Amino acid sequence: MPNKRTSASLNIRVATPQDVQAIHELSIRVYGEGNSCTAGMIRGQIAAFPEGQFVVEYDDDVVGYAASFRIDEKTAMGDHTWMEITGGGYASRHDPAGDWLYGMEVLVDPTRRRLRIGQRLYDARQGLAEAKELKGIVFGGRMPGWQRRKKTYPTPQEYLNAVVNRKTSDQVISFQLRQGFEPIGVLKDYLASDKASGGYASHMIWRNPYAKEMPGETELPHGQKEDVRVATVQFSARMVGSFDEFMANVEYFVDVTADYRSDFVVFPELFTLQLLALEQKKLSPAESIEQLTRYTPRFIEKMREMAIGYNINIIGGSHPTRTDDGEIQNVAYVFLRDGSVHAQEKIHPTPNERYWWNIQGGDEIGVIQTDCGPIGVLICYDSEFPELARRLADEGARILFIPFCTDTRQSYLRVRYCAQARAIENQCYVVMSGNVGNMPNVENMDIQYAQSCILTPCDYPFARDGIAAETSENVETVAVADLDFTDITWARAQGTVRNLRDRRFDLYSIDWKKGV
């Protein structure tokens, strides 16, 4: 019987959020730890333009990746840097009506060089440009041979001309020329980390022979509605006789909002402080928080069961938790209806939290992937720091959930005004959920003030006052609203203002520490 021989399988497909970690590890293999794309950048690329991101799999390993987005001709053909045109690496400058495809990244596993992975990725991009009837593809390409030949070719333009005229060769430029690309010039200061190219890049284009002329700016249609129903619970503090009684109160609202077919329900910050009513003696603030952390495993398991049982995604307010390193942090747990549990630490504890409860700030912020797309969570005070919301929007979040706990109207309005600002500047929806009622025997839960709400950007497709729904002040109740993601897509591309796209990346950027 002859020996059976099975070839290794190689597959190219559109990238998904499940590929983020594998792509990040590929980036490290290609560029090293210091210059690799962060996982957040890759999440943002996939969220901004899912059709434009491709991976190559070989024996189920990700060995290639290409990232791209649509852009208008004026921007694509003008002088730019990589940071400017890619929105800091997140593809946040993606324009759904753009008539050119911009290639922002190609990664090929250095141990798989003979599989023509780069060519396959270039072919996939060209196929996408043809299918979308775009004018073509444009990008800034590396010139890794220039520094070695700088004595012969003093300027990058002279070097580029020499490669085009076949007087010398360059591994990258020569490959791109074979793929049908042509240089239209040199981009200065394109990517400072590319030392071999002296920071320069060849400005490359490929013209789509099947392109249709698009006179002027193409109007982006609203298209089919993409609705998500969200509910915010304005939860009242009350004396409870047992852990099960507290969870029964929570389950009531999960049941009600699930009956309204909500996709998400959000509870307030630190709403589990009601469990301190079970203590037989008055505890100091530090003792109170320590006691609450002991409920963490039971709280997580009950909330997870509810998310599955009621088929709803639950943003479980926040709960004091002792972390693996021994610190106590204020953590928002997100319970998805598929049974998965995610955690978002509060990055900025308030002065009171630090002083009375010794709560420490977290050190990671990122989107959470759900069946309705990526979401972000900012716990109360975190909403007053715009850098965090911008990071989440860049990673693809179209809804930000803000569980909060405020005692006075002044405190509440700080969070409310900042939440509205986050909705406007990031062109996203923001959902706030706060506590009401009083618990005289529980430290720092003496009085509460809240008016929970669901906020929108301020533009024509949205609610007139930027408020999709809001509760009455200081009563226990629920607010529900349907949010249309196609309105967000339209506003970011063609709204009256376009805050995400109009950022001046040539003047400023936020530099996050690697790994954060």
Automatic annotation (TrEMBL):
- One Pfam family cited in the UniProt record for this chain: CN_hydrolase
Q: Which Gene3D superfamilies match?
A: 3.40.630.30, Carbon-nitrogen hydrolase
Report the residue ranges that make up the N-acetyltransferase domain in this protein.
Answer: 10-209
Official protein name in the record: GNAT family N-acetyltransferase
- Tell me which domain of life the UniProt entry assigns to the organism this sequence originates from: Bacteria
Q: Which InterPro entries match?
A: Acyl_CoA_acyltransferase (IPR016181), C-N_Hydrolase (IPR003010), C-N_Hydrolase_sf (IPR036526), GNAT_dom (IPR000182)
Domain CN hydrolase: start-end pairs: 228-485
Q: Which organism is it from?
A: Aquisalinus luteolus
